[in-house]
Fold these 3 entries.
Entry 1:
Amino acid sequence: MRESGTFSHREPGSACGPRAFMRALWMVFSVLATATVEAAELTAPAPSRDFYFPNTEELAPDEMRVIALGTGTPHIRPVQAATSWLVELGNGDKFLFDVGTGSLRNFAGLQISYNDVYRVFFSHLHVDHVGDFDALWASGWTGGRLRPLQVWGPSGTEPRLGTRHYVETLRDAMYWDYATRSGILPEIGSGIEVHEFDYSQAQVVYEENGVTVRSFPSVHILDGAVSYRLEWKGLSFVFSGDVTPNKWMVEYGKNVDLLVHEVYMTIGQLMEHFGWDRQMAMTVSRRVHTTPAAAGEMFSLLQPRMAVGFHFYNDPDTAPEIEREIRKAYDGPLTLARDLTVFNLRPGSIHVRQAVTPQRTWPMVPDREDFARAKRAQPRKMSDWLRAGQLPIDIYTRPEDSGAGAQ
C-alpha cells in the first residue's frame, strides 16, 4: 500500500533512452494483456494492483474511491481536461465535484451508468469548472438517465452571479436540443433540480444515506466561490475548487483523509510558457490562485493523510519544480494528480494509481424495461413543407432489407 511519500507518474520516454522507453511500453502492454485474467482472479480485500481497470473492483462497505476526471486549467489539452472529481462510496453513492471542460470524456472511459451519477456540486461558475455540464445533461439523457440531475452550487452577490441563474439560462440556450429529444427519450431524464445555497456561510448542504457534504467560503477573484468537505463512515474528502489560502480552509480542511487542493504553476513557469510579464504572473498566481509554495504551507497546517495538488500542467519539465516548492514547507504524503489518477481510501490505507480506460465505450444504459416504459412527452412535429422536402429513400420499406422472408 502506498500511503506516504510522493506519487509521481512519468511519461514513458521522458528523461530516459529508447531502451527504457521500450521496456516501459512492454510493461504497459503486458498489464493490459492480462487485465481480464486479473479481474477474474481479484479476491483481495483491498486494492493491490498498480493500475485500476473500471468495473473490476467492488468497493468495500467502508471504502471510498476518488478519481480525477480533470486536473488542468482553462487551457484544456489532450492529456488534461479541466477540473472534475468523481467520488464513489461503498454504499453505492456517487458524486461529481465540478464538471470542467473535457472531463466527460474521461468519465465515459470509466463505463459508469449516467443513471448513477446525478449529484453534482459546483465550486464556482468558471468554465473550466462547469464547462461540460451541458454535455453531462445531454449525454446522460441520451445515455439512459431516468432521474433529474441534482445540482448544488453557491449563490452570488446578485441573482445573475448564482448557480440557479447559470443553470436556468443554460437550459434556455439549449432549448432546441431539448425540443428535438423530448417525446423520444424519457422526459424525466431531461430534468435539472437546482439547490442553490448561501456562499457566505459554512453549512451542511447535503445530508443523506450517511453522507454529509459541507460547503464553506473560498477566496477566488469574486464573491461566490466555495470549497467542500464530504464525510462518510469516518472517511473525509475536501475539494478546494479554485482558492487562495484562507481561514475557512484552515478551519474546515484540517485532518482530512484526502485533501484535493489547488496548486497553480510557479511565476517563472507562467512567464515562460504563457508569455506573461512578471506583474501579471504574480497577480494571477498569488491573488487568484495558490502558488506551490503557499500550497505547501497550507498542507503543513492542515496535515491531511494525503495531500493532492491539481490545476497545473503536470509535465516532466514542470512537476519537479512544483514539488520542490511544495516541499519547502511540507514533508507529508503528496500526490501531484494527473487525469485518471485513482485514490482508494480505507480507514487504514490510501492506495494511489492510474486508471487504464478503454477508448471505444458505449453508454451503460440502466434496466431496458424501465427505459422502455418511462413516460415520454408529446413529440414536436416538423413543418409540413420541410418534411415534404425529404427524399423518399427508406431501406426499411424494401422486403429484402426489412427481414421479411428471412429463413
Note: The radius of gyration is 23 Å.
Entry 2:
Amino acid sequence: MSAPDKVWNNPWLQIHFCVFLWGFTAILGRLISLPALPLVLWRMLMVAVVLFLLPRVWRGLARLSGRHLLAFSGVGVLVALHWLTFYGSIKLANASVAATCMALVPVFLCVIEPLVTGSRFRRAELVLGLLVLPGIALVVGGTPESMNTGILVGVLSAFLVALFSAYNKRLVTRTDALSVTALEMLAGGVFLALVSALLSVLPLSAEAGAFFPVPSALFALPPAEDVGYLLLLAFGCTLLPFALSLHALRRLSAYASALAVNLEPIYAIMLAIVILGEQRELGVGFYAGALIIVAVVFIHALQRQR
C-alpha cells in the first residue's frame, strides 16, 4: 500500500474528513427555507434513490438476515429523528447553537455504548466527556433566552446521535457500508413519509412551524432556490460522509468517533461566521466554550496515542 493510501485509510483522518463535511449541514439547514420534516425527508429519500441504483447495494442487502434488516431499519428511524430534531434546533435557534449541542454526544455515549455493545465502561472517557460540559455551559450562556427551546431540542438530537452511533457500532461489523446506508436512508425516509401522512390530517400549532409545514405543503416539491442546497446536502454532506463514517467505525469506538465529532461545532461556527454572519449573535463566552471543546478533543487524541 502506498503512503497516500495508508494516510487515507487512517480511520481518524476518515472520521475528521466526515466531520468537516458535516460542518456544512448546519449551514445548509439554515439556508434551506423548508421546515425540518420535509427537509430531512427529501435528504434521506434522495440518497436512498441513488444508492439503490447500485448493484453492490442489492448484493449487500441480500446477505443480511431478516433480523439485521429490521435492526438497521430501526437505526434509520433513529437517524431520521436525530436529523429532524437537529434541523428543528437550527430553525428555533441558529446553526452555531444546534451544532454545538452535538458536543454532548460523548457524555451520552460513555453510558449508552457499554449498555448497547457490551464494551467495558471506562471512567477516563466519562471524565473527558464531562469536561465538555463547562464548554457547553459557556456556549449556552452566550446565546439569547429566545433560543432556549432550540438548545433543548439540540440536546435531544445529541442523545439520538449517541443511540444510533452505538447501535451502528454493534451492527456494522462485516457489513457493506453502502448497503447499510441505503437501508437506513430508505427506512428513515419511509418513516418520515408516514409521519407526514399522519400530520396531514392533524391540526398543527403555530409553534410547530419550525418542524412541520402546513398540511397542504407536506408533500409539495421544494422551491427552486432550495433544490441546489438539497442536492449538496444529500450527496456532499450525507452520502459521502455517512458511508465513510461507517467504514471508520469498524476501527474506532463509537465514543472515539463521537469525540472527534466535537470538532463539528467549530467548523460550523467558522462557516456560520463567514457565510451567515452569525458572529453578531455570539459573545466571548461562546468562543471560550468552543476552545474547551477543542481542548478535550486533543486530550483524548493524545490519550489514545499513548
Note: The chain has a mean pLDDT of 81.
Entry 3:
Amino acid sequence: MKTLNLISPPVSEITFQIFTFPDGQPHIKLDIKTEQRFTSCRILARISSMNDLFLVLAAKNALDHAEVEDVELYVSYLMAARMDRVMTNGEPFSLKIIADILNLGNFKKIKIFDPHSDVSTALVNRSAAIDNAALVRMAIEDFTEKYSSNNNYCLISPDSGALKKVYNVAQQLGIQEVAECIKHRDVSTGQLSGFKTFEENFGQKTCFIVDDICDGGGTFAGIATLLKSRNAGKVVLIVSHGIFSRGLTIAGIDYIYTTDSYQSFGEVLPNFKFYEVGTVLGL
C-alpha cells in the first residue's frame, strides 16, 4: 500500500504539488504515471482548516480518477472535534458539519488520532480512533531516560472527561497510579474557575498530565499549580495535539511532549519535544 503523506511531503511515497489559484482556490496535483498504477493507498493528513479538508477530498477524488480502488485516510487532527455537541442556543454543531463533508469522500476506512470524544467516530463513516498510548509510552521513556531512572511517577487526568481515556492508556502501559483532577468551566464564556484533586500528597512523584489538546494552556497551568501544592515533583504535559495559542511555555509545566498533528514546529525550547505523528502512528 502506497502512502500519500500530506503532512510531510518529503517522505510521501506519492509525490504531489499543492498550490492556490488566483481566486483563492486550493489545488493539488498527484504525480501518478499510467505505467505505475497501484490499487491501494492511505492518505495521512491533518485537518486543521477548511483548506485542509478540501485538499483531502481533492486528493481522494484524484485517486478515484486514477482508479485506485482502496483508499484509507489517517487523520492526525480533526478540526471541530471539540464542538461535539451544541453548547448554547445559536451555535452550530460544527463537528457534524465537518463529518458530513468528510463522509462525501467515501473512504474505505478512516482512522482518527486521539479524537476529543467518541462523537467523532460516531459521525464519521467507517471510522475508528487511534489512542495516544504510543505517544505516552515514548514520552515517559524519553523523560525517565533523561531525568529519572526510577518508576516514581503517575498519570494525571486533567478532568473527568479525560479520565476514561487516561485509565485505558495506563492499563495498556501497565501503569498502576492514576490521579484525577477536576476543573470548573463556564461553558458560555470558557472561563475557568478552579481545580481540585483527591490526592493529598504526591510524594515528589513525577506527574505526567495526559490529554488530547493543548490550546492556550490555562487548564494545565492551573493543574500544575495544584499538583505542586500537593508535593508533586516534576510536572510533565503529554498532549497529542499542540495548538499552543499562547506560546510553547506554560507556567508550572516543566516539560512538554506533543506531536506535529496540528502544526509543524521549527526550532523549539530545550524542555519541549515533538514527535512526527506518522512515527507515533507507526506509518
Note: The helical segments are 50-65, 94-103, 119-123, 133-147, 160-173, 218-229, 277-280.
